[in-house]
Amino acid sequence: MTTVESTGRVVGKWQGAWLQVEGRWTWYRRHWVSTLYSTGLQPVLFLAAMGLGFGSQVRPGTVTGGLSYLQYIAPALLAAGAAQQAVGESSYPVLSGFKWQKDYLAVTATPVSPGQVFGGHLIWSALRLTLAGAIYAFVALFFGAWTGPGVLLVVLAGTVTGLACTTPMAAFAASTFDEGQRFGLIFRFVVMPMTLFSGTFFPISQLPAAIRWLAWLSPLWHGTQLARGVSVGGIGGWAMLGHFAVLAALFAAGWALAHRAFYRRLVV
């Protein structure tokens, strides 16, 4: 009887995740034009409409920290765009990996583990968020939206904000077994109100005190404050650290839930 020796090898933790990224990059480099709107152009259009259009009617004052309205909302729109992109790319695409295209099932039939599949999703999301933020920051430069070199850190703040939304949404998508109707509710009753009432367009101090606490729970408010702090200042170092800590905690909690959900759904 002939003995057959295995020629396979165990995939390292990081290598398995990067193999996922490589697969996504292979698709992206051929279809990147179709993602231009979500990868930077959407928040730029918001910036033009609100910063140049509506902003032309708003005078610099104490509310805007003495800045033009364009400069006031520019970092916040970057954070808002990152949050919207993160939720969008961790909802239907993640569910599709389990339910429709089932590429997650195909990948985990190889030595790649469910944790590595999720890790690849996170790495790719971080790269996409950073790319979108860089495109937005570059275009906004020609609008006169930035007041100093803090723009480089604004991109990082946007990525951190997006990742704080990515992991909870991925956990939610991994626990969804229907056709994803609930995602529409998330966009309508969570993402849009979060965008409008988390300090993006006006300080939350203008909100009624009875509902102001809802803004404090929003990852976008912390991301907006972080982005404004590194861009235009006016926020103390300890406050900045606190906002970052909240975003890190949301990311960690979402990661734990999503990691468990991926294993429960992919390991038979």
From TrEMBL:
The keyword Cell membrane applies. Signal peptide: none annotated. This is Transport permease protein. It is a multi-pass membrane protein. It holds the Pfam family ABC2_membrane. Residues 34-265 form the ABC transmembrane type-2 domain. Belongs to the ABC-2 integral membrane protein family. Keywords: Antibiotic resistance, Cell membrane, Membrane, Transmembrane, Transmembrane helix, Transport. It is found in: Cell membrane; Membrane. The chain crosses the membrane at residues 126-146, 152-173, 185-215, 235-258. InterPro entries: ABC2_TM, ABC2_TM_bact-type, ABC_2_transport, Nod_factor_ABC_transporter. It comes from Amycolatopsis plumensis.
